[in-house]
Amino acid sequence: MNILGIDYGKNKIGLAWLQTSLDIILPFGLVIEKTREEQLRKLAKIIKEENIDKIVFGFPLTLEDMTENKNTERIKKFAEDLYKLTNKEFEFVDERLTTAEARNMEGDASLDEKSAMLILKTYLDK
Q1: Which stretches make up the YqgF/RNase H-like domain (predicted)?
Q2: 124: how many CB neighbours lie within 10 A of its CB?
Q3: Among 11, 42, 85, 121, which is least packed, fewest CB within 10 Å?
């Protein structure tokens, strides 16, 4: 199964890829298109070309009380719109503190890709 991890940001979307048979998570680039519609089209193209079976989004719950907020609502809407384009199953995982942890990771991947990798690691660990 091919799984795409997404660290969704307003300006950049970090991607990571997991093929469950290999049990390895790899950085998979950035989506930096200007508009939301362009971002959705680009992701739909990647999902089709790479035969992605499932999408895992990081879900930025509030640190203090783990409640949803404006960012979680924005990500839910984006995920629903991507589903309409791809018909691919998606799931949300807690992404609190992934950016801080990503800053401590070594390697050439961008901070956003590292965050997406940690999102997939959280998914695998649950």
Answers
A1: 1-102
A2: 15
A3: 11
Question: Which residue, among 109, 116, 118, has the nearest Cα to 14 in the 3D structure?
Answer: 116
Q: Are strands 13-19 and 24-31 parallel, antiparallel or unpaired?
A: antiparallel
Q: Is the pLDDT of residue 73 over 90?
A: yes
C-alpha pair distances (Å), 14 with each of 17, 65, 66, 78, 116? 10, 26, 23, 14, 6
The pLDDT of residue 46? 98
The residue behind tokens 């950085």 is: 27
Q: What does the pLDDT look like over 76-99, one tens digit per residue?
A: 999 999 999 999 999 999 887 677
* CATH value at residue 113: 3.30.420.140
Full residue range of the structural domain in which residue 46 is found: 2-125
Domain count, the chain: 1
- Strands 2-8 and 89-94 come out as unpaired
* b/e map 32-66, b = 16+ CB within 10 Å: ebeeeeebbeebbebbeeeebebbbbbbbbeeeee
